[in-house]
Design brief:
With about 150 residues, this protein is mostly helical. The protein has 5 helices and no strands. It starts with a helix and ends with a helix.
Length: about 150
């Protein structure tokens, strides 16, 4: 059986993933104009990815002897595409941080570490993609500064 701290943290991750399902779905619903055709499917894909991660994490919590939460955090939403992209970058960056902490808590449990690393890789790809989408905006500069501070 896993530590209560690990299970509690996995439940925080699960809440975050449930938030992603709602936040990305809402973004896909409300995006309008010429960018709708480009971004609506992307946001729906991200919602599906968050749902897939929620399924994996929920199942793992049960396997570790815990009970998965059925709640989420408040979503961020906007009709402004740049703002939605910034929210998405922040969301993915927070997920990376959360999975990195989970990896620290899972140290010594190699199968769990590999499981978490696989999901972490997906989250990092999300950070990379949203960073590239925002590359020529001031939002990307703020995220890069945050990332540089964390790695330094």
């Amino acid at each position: 059986m896993a530590s209560q701290e690990l299970i509690a943290h996995l439940n925080e991750i699960l809440k975050h993933e449930w938030t992603g399902v709602a936040q990305y779905s809402q973004a896909a619903f409300i995006i309008e104009g010429v960018w709708r055709e480009v971004y609506a499917e992307r946001f729906l894909g991200d919602a599906k990815e968050s749902f897939g991660h929620a399924q994996l994490i929920g199942d793992k919590i049960v396997a570790l002897g815990g009970v998965p939460v059925a709640t989420r955090n408040e979503i961020q939403q906007s009709r402004d595409l740049q703002e939605v992209l910034q929210f998405s970058l922040e969301f993915e960056s927070k997920a990376v941080d959360m999975y990195e902490k989970a990896l620290d808590l899972a140290e010594g449990n190699r199968p769990l570490v590999i499981f978490l690393e696989d999901i972490l890789n997906d989250e990092q790809e999300g950070v990379d993609e949203y960073t590239k989408l925002l590359r020529n905006s001031t939002a990307a500069g703020a995220a890069a500064t945050h990332s540089a501070k964390k790695s330094g």
